[in-house]
Here is the input.
Amino acid sequence: MHYLITGGAGFIGSHFVEHLANDNQITVFDNYSTGHNIFKHKNVNYVTGDITDLSSLQQLQQPVDVVIHLAAALSVTESMTNPAKYHKINVLGSQNVYDTASRLNARTIVSASSAAVYGDCGRAHITESFPYAGISPYASSKFEMEQLHSNSAKMIFTRFFNVYGPRQDPRSPYTGVITAFMQRARSNQPLTIFGDGKQTRDFVFVKDLVRFVVDLVTFGAEGIFNIGTELETSIADLANIISTFGSGGVVFGAERNGDIKYSVSDCSKLKGIVSFDKKTVLEKGVEKTWEWFVKGNGHEWIHSEL
Here is the structure.
């Protein structure tokens, strides 16, 4: 099959490319603003462009079977001060991608959404039927994106919970807490927890996420799917795991605007389709991420040829 992957040089996108390249033709469309992970393979072609510029998407002319749309603006914190950017990229840019997918006769579009659309749901395990309750412009932009559709393709919207793993840039303002903690542990600096540390997240290893999404495509799924683990981990417990890699300990800072208190998925819908039990436990995933992190000597996330 021929896959078009927007944002395919980024953290999550590069893992899709790596997973799919041996048996499929891949076109990556990326502006390289946050990722430069280049996978050298005869089946992979890289096209430079921006999803907010419809004319640059005109570079894409070959028909595709599946579009995996990952290109996005990702920072909750930044969205609070620059909501227009998030609407432009995540809403208008996504419509450009969907229109391009129709032009290229794509049969399926997978569009990466976020658990941020649920807001703070207390201690409940969140199902896809929970109403929109986002508390940031980032969340709003992702929910608006889900209301858009292609004229012809089957749509899959994947609501990612907290994704982590190798190639996640710890210096980016969009990064996840795991690699941000690792950046500080590696320098023996204290890990900073914003808030009381009792807030919880559902951490999903990037390679598991890729497998889940590819299985959804393979089995002809459509609609909205949570992509998580159904396991809840407090930020304090996470800090205790990662603090063992350094000697700086843990400190606490003020809560950040737009952050939610608790988040954990119910993936019953996903489990009806994919091999859900074969997922990476957090401690093992953290270990694999740390191995990548120290191997990179602080530079691998800037530019890597995989």
